[in-house]
Amino acid sequence: MSLQTWVETIVSHQSGGTSFGTYTTSKSVINPQALYTIPPGFMTIGKALEIDIMGGIGTLVTTPGTITFEVKLGPTANIVVFTTGTMQLNATAHTNLPFWVKILLTCRAVGSTTAANLMGQAWAMGTMFTVTAAQTDGVNSQTIMAAPKTAPAVGTGFDSTVANILDLWVGFSISDAANTIKIEQYTVKALN
Fold it and tell me: What is the DSSP string of 6-45?
């Protein structure tokens, strides 16, 4: 017997985003219109969300540091339910070069307070990403890397019995005007 399911885009960016730079502590990088409120009970065990993030990243030459992508939930989008962990940026200066990050989240538990959780894994693609610090474009081109760089584990627990705002946050390890991110396309799909 088959399970009849369909894919539904539940939210997407309707216009280009703001270019954010000169900061370290992660912050929301999607347009306010793309914030989605997940209703109580929407998450069920096995429910999967696929998040696609595309845009441009600029990087500082020589020592750009790292970048981290975080999916946050909660009544005020304050709970990190998934993080890519730090991803190394390469040592060539870039200005708004294209990147693509895909995140898959699967609900593993539901419930109140902090009982609900999601298993998350991702991949990131772009010239600016590298496995080893100090690599340049000459050595590195269109890297595709898996995230996180640790054993897969569920993210921080949240309350699935209340409305939760879904948001995307990004942080840099080095604050510089050259380290920038601008989201051009962002979609969240419910896979079942």
Answer: --EEEEE-SS---EEES--S-EE-S-GGG-EEEPTT---T
Instruction: Single out the residue of 121, 123, 166, 143 nearest to residue 59, CA to CA.
Output: 143
pLDDT at 192: 86
pTM of the model as a whole: 0.94
Whether the CB-CB separation of 93 and 75 falls below 8 Å is answered with no
Angle ∠(25,27,31) on CA atoms, nearest 5: 165
66-121 pLDDT, tens per residue?
999 999 999 999 999 999 999 999 999 999 999 999 999 999 999 999 999 999 99
Domain ranges (residues) in the chain: 27-190
131 within 8 A of 145, measured Cβ to Cβ = yes
Q: Judge whether 17 and 55 are in contact, CB under 8 Å.
A: yes
